[in-house]
Amino acid sequence: MEIFLLKNIDNPESHRIQVYQQTGGYEQLKKALSMKPEDIIQEVKNSGLRGRGGAGFPTGMKWDFASRDPKLPKYLVCNADEGEPGTFKDRPILEKNPHLLIEGMVISAYALKAERGYIYLRGEYPHAKVVLEEAIREAYESGFLGQDILGSGFSFDLSVHQGAGAYICGEETALIDSLEGRRGQPRIKPPFPVNVGAWGMPTVVNNVETLSNLPLIIKIGAEEYKKIGNPECPGPKLYCVSGMVERPGVYELPMGTTLKEIIYEHCGGIKGGGQLKAVIPGGISTPVLTPDKIDVQMDFVSLPKVGSMLGSGAVMVFDESVCLVRVCWRAIRFFEHESCGKCTPCREGVGWMRTVLERIESGFGRKGDIELLQDIASNITGKTFCPLGDGAAGVVLNFIRNFPEEFDYHIQNKKCMVEA
Amino acid sequence: MIKLTIDGIEVELEKPITVLEAARKAGIKIPTLCYFEGLKPFGGCRLCVVEVEKLPRLQTACTMMAADGMVVKTETEKIKAARRAMLEFLLINHPLDCPVCDKAGECELQDLVARYGPDAGRFREGKRRHPESFDDPIIVRNMERCVLCTRCIRMCEDLQGAYAITVTGRGSHSFVEPFSGGRYDCEYCGNCLTVCPVGAIMSRLHRHSYRPWYIQNNVETVCGYCGVGCTMILQMREGQIVRTIPEMGLGLNNGLLCVRGRFGYDFVQSEARLRMPMIRKDGELREVSWAEALDYVAKRLREISEKHGPQAVGGIGSSRCTNEDNYMLQRLMRFTIGTNNIDSAARLYYAPAQRFLERIFGQGITANLIPGIKNSDGVLIFGGDPTQINPILGLQIRAAGRESATVVTFGRAKGLERFAHYMLPGGPSVIDAVTGMIVQELRDKVQLSGENKWLEGEIQKTRVSEAVEGVSVDEVVERLKEMTNPVIIIGPEVLQSQNSDRTLLLIAQIVYLLNGRVFLLSDRPNYQGCIDMGVLPDMLPGGRPIEMFKHKAEEVMGKEVPTERGLNLFEMIEAASEGRLKALYVMGENPVFNLPDRERVTQALKGLEFLVVQDIFLTETALMADVVLPARAWSEKTGTFTNLERRIQMVRAGAESVEDMGDWRIIAELAQRLGEEKQFRSVEDVWEEITHVSPLHTALDYEEISKGNALWPYNGEPLRGVEEEVEIQGLDDIKPLKVEAVLQPDRPLYHSGSMSRHSKALKSIEDAPKVVIGEALSEKLSLKDGDRVRVTTERGTLKATVSIDSTLGDERVFLSNTFSEGNFSSLATYGVSRLGSMSLDANKVRVEKEEA
Amino acid sequence: MEEIKEILKRYPDRRGALLPTLYIMQREYGWLSQEALQAAADALNLPPATVKGVATFYAMYRHKPMGRHLIQLCTNVACMIMGAERLVDLLKERYGLEPGGTTEDGRFSLVIMECIGACDRAPAMLVDTDFHADLNEQNLFEILEQYK
Ligand SMILES: Cc1cc2nc3c(=O)[nH]c(=O)nc-3n(C[C@H](O)[C@H](O)[C@H](O)COP(=O)(O)O)c2cc1C
Ligand code: SF4
Ligand code: FES
């Protein structure tokens, strides 16, 4: 497969508009501007593109809802919050290929008739902010942003909105609240952002990677696009791999590449030739898998069949040297820190799980603690306001389900299996 | 039509509502914590979860809209387990200190745990600690008890519009706090107290003083502070008010109160209350029996009236007393003693302004519904900050501004700063020019109805000869002309100057051009009642001019109406100082303190042969009296008030104080001693007579009034077709005036004068005079908020703290008339305006920084 | 301020500019003191309590004074398994620097971060706005020594 999303990134000047344009950049925008907005939406629908932010929602459908809403103005927001632990796939686009994203956004905005766009960028990426703002400036200068883009009569303004350290602001409604200058807490849905989003107006929120697929779809058309990867949810996919592999990093591969191939071929296998113990396929919120499950295709439809999810495509690999109780504890500490506090089960329950995990991990576990954890987790599950709390409960339930012996060992021996 | 099934009950809905509301309609109460009627749904507590057929997850009933064909279950085992789980979560960090928590007994969390469990704790670790905050004089915050339902925040932001509190922090470290983290900088409406389901936000005033089950009776009454007339519940125990609370669905305030209503009631329990009648003997006031006091008053009044004629006697009614009290005083003066010398503080601005507007538009022009304000598409505010003078009316304006209304203020209106779309200048130097400019532009842009030819003529005559520099009204006029149901609010600050008749005519022109509904702000609870009860020298009850209705009244009363022209409040003071007025009966009013020019007023009263003061405190006026009669306070009375929308509302006694006999009865007793035959056995008897005498109140009884809908002119007959022409000078030559800094009376949120300065609660919020200045003056004098200044007028100097009002763009300096140590009237003098109101133009003032 | 005026142009209302304004105040005042929060509220004409509520929600706004350089070290799962916790200990040993604290000489403050998106080169940190990855016991101090 030809590399598209990460094209040029080995070139130290890849973030500059000249480099981008030399390799065909902004050509797709010209093509798109000659199409009818409805046709672009139709093309995106036909392409089968599904959102890369985690939920895998069909992008064309989302756009359709928004474009049917008569309210004006409309907003296009790029979700560059990339907060899911283990995830760093959007970062190379933001830092090294920003014009791809900008081109994707202008095309999307044109299709949606949105005149205002924001890139909601996580505060933890200060370098990306500099790069993006410079790229936006270049794009304005070249007439790809601003009034009457390339003489099409279409205008689009774009700016970076810097987040300030809140994972929940990756959730689209919390993101909108944060964009509006509020505490970033999820909103009641419905109404959905496509109808009542930023400042009460129809708003489309899409992930960086999703929007960056637009130039490709325009370039090769839906039919060709569908041939990339698993036809049920096609396209190129960025997999970011971390943990105990030889070559961690971001890989652009066809959607549906198997986890095994990713770990053992692209990443060169387990670090130091160790033994794989566990792998999280899609970021910390997605259920952990045991080594026997890694033959699975990494896409939105295959992973659920083995009890997990594609999420953000963030693969975290753990070998025998890693204590999974500690990983579980650390993950829950993360969720506790990031719980927005809006709903009872997440605000109180996740912290409680953390305290129980903490005592197990530090050798003070008691008999019954595993059952207690499972009970707290199931009391959270299905009752939280947004998926964050569910995700936290899922982490606990899945780690315990898949690796009960590690938890038992901790409680019985008051110490870690790994160090033993 | 939406049809759904909830717990087997079929529910039909006209319009989409939430499952929770639909269930309530069907009589099914789903437990909630974060839900509160009237606040936006939040969906955070997760207690209202229900099962909806075909949906795998439990759903929160408070956020889910009912849909056709839905089948909902609200109490299955799965649901109960979920609720128990949520409650367990809420309890893990909760201090479980119910035995020392004042909320116990009315705590929603406690009740829910009693119902759903858990009944044992599984949480073994240390709880989150967050010490209780006592930094505020009124509000105690205990964030360990908080369940983070955010009802208080939504109340404070969305309904009150004060934005004083927030959730700080995140996740399990979220706490409700004011900006300072300690003391509140807020309007102290206390509406957060109403909505807090647990003991997290509590009133400090009541701390450990009672338990909810101690409350012996709940009495529904109307607040005695301002002309809005909020309904509230007095919660009583052993004759004392334990607290006052509003109630959802009750009264036009519908669950809200302002600081005065919620916290200011404790004046009635003040040590300083008068208990026994007093007669001045050997220069000193000595306590005597009621019989002795009344006999003496009757004797003296008879003597004076016989010797000097009834015209030597006068009465001052009270805008803080009930209609019945005022009616009786009026009756005593007119029909027993035989003089029209009767007036009240409504004279200061309210009555003349209303009269002026009624002459133009007809009786009832100010009778409009407060709750309607929020549905209007425009609100124009002249002459004061409604959020201070009439706070609950102010909230309606905020709500309107948040919805689709365009809010335009003229002059200062601090409380509307975040809600107004246009803030135009409105100080005395420019108000006429600004309104005139609007009239000039507007008259060409709207269709004139031809209904009032005279006024249309005046509108055409209006000419601004010199526009106000830097002010453009174009944009505002564009918005005005689109308005279909605007509201025009007129407050005292444009009604107490020499020129106020012209100002009011210009405002009236705008009212006419926009077909607006008028509200007259009323800083006292019963100005309107004083007017309607005939506590006016020239009007009989029902707002009937004496000349026209003399015979009718005589027919009903079987007594003569005196023919001699009566003296108004100003004239009575005048007559007293000239020795023409010999006896004055003052009921529930404190002219020495409330009228400017204390010297003049004191001298005048000294000149009287006989002064009777009937009051609850030994006021500055009472101190001069020959006889002092202890009166009942508002919470001890039964009767009616008429609010500024002319709604007649029941005032009910929470408890009657033992020693006294109530204002109307005192007067009835007096009247008997002066030869009156009619016996008034109860307050209903008084009301009965009113309904016969006043054509506005025909056949209206307490039962009807109790329903809360006795709006003007209920059953009665307004006076129609008496529109008159009024003559105003200088309409065709309006220009900005050169005006020097003048001192004006402030009507602050936290105080109202003689009553509020006896309220410990209100004093704990503000206990010293504040002088309010605009930004220009503060810059000129390099003053910041809280600096000490000296305020000097011809009458003297006082020291006060400065408060800067960013919306005050003119030359006025405001000082409230609250504290005896520093108040407006002691520094001011007054005149009478052409409108007939008090004119306060002459009080030139100098503010100087006090060097530390 | 000119800068805030520019930012205001990007949003349909004043409130939208709050997050960027808080960053500016943080830069100007060093941290978001009451004074800084009040300044943000005044600049945008927002209620100060509201501003505080927003500011305290986000982890990257500072609510106490900071050292000259801010170390934001990630200890989330990927960094943890690659030894980030050891680095936290070292910072304490070497500089007496505790998470959430500041060195006595006011040179460094340390904030423990959740994932900063550098998991492939864990452990990683931000020092002020500079990004440093593939940290280990040696290079950590070589890097920090460049910050005076
Ligand atoms: C707790 C939570 C965190 C999320 N974080 C991110 C994120 O960091 N980046 C992202 O693109 N989407 C994130 N999402 C998903 C967004 O809500 C949303 O689905 C996505 O931005 C839609 O874009 P897409 O359709 O292009 O995937 C998150 C969702 C949840 C519930
Ligand atoms: S699950 Fe609840 S508390 Fe947790 S992040 Fe979502 S809304 Fe906030
Ligand atoms: S009442 Fe529905 S979630 Fe709180």
Task: Walk me through this protein's architecture.
The complex is a heterotrimer of chains A (420), B (852) and C (148). Chain A starts with 16 loop residues before the first helix and ends in a 7-residue tail after the last helix. Chain A has three domains: 17-227, NADH-ubiquinone oxidoreductase 51kDa subunit (Rossmann fold); 230-319, Ubiquitin-like (UB roll), CATH 3.10.20.600; 324-413, de novo design (two linked rop proteins) (Up-down Bundle), CATH 1.20.1440.230. In chain A, strands 3-2-1-4 form a four-stranded parallel sheet, with helices on both faces. In chain A, strands 6-5-8-7 form a four-stranded mixed sheet, covered by helices on one side. Chain A is built from 16 helices and eight strands. Helix content of chain A is 42%, strand content 11%. With 420 residues, chain A is of the alpha/beta class. Chain B folds into five domains: 2-75, Ubiquitin-like (UB roll) (Roll); 123-269, Alpha-Beta Plaits (2-Layer Sandwich); 297-344 and 535-715, Rossmann fold, CATH 3.40.50; 350-520, Dimethylsulfoxide Reductase, domain 2, CATH 3.40.228; 743-849, Barwin-like endoglucanases, CATH 2.40.40.20. Chain B has 26 helices and 37 strands. In chain B, helix 12 (431-442) packs parallel to helix 15. The longest helix of chain B has 19 residues, at 290-308. Chain C has two domains: 2-57; 69-144, Glutaredoxin. Chain C is an alpha+beta fold. Chain C is built from seven helices and four strands; from the N terminus they run H-H-H-H-E-H-H-E-E-E-H. At the A-B interface, helix 12 and helix 13 of A face helix 2 of B. Bound molecules: flavin mononucleotide, iron/sulfur cluster (SF4) and FE2/S2 (inorganic) cluster. Iron/sulfur cluster binds at residues 168, 186, 339-343, 346-347, 384-386, 388-389 of chain A. Iron/sulfur cluster is lined by residues 168, 186, 339-343, 346-347, 384-386, 388-389 of chain A.
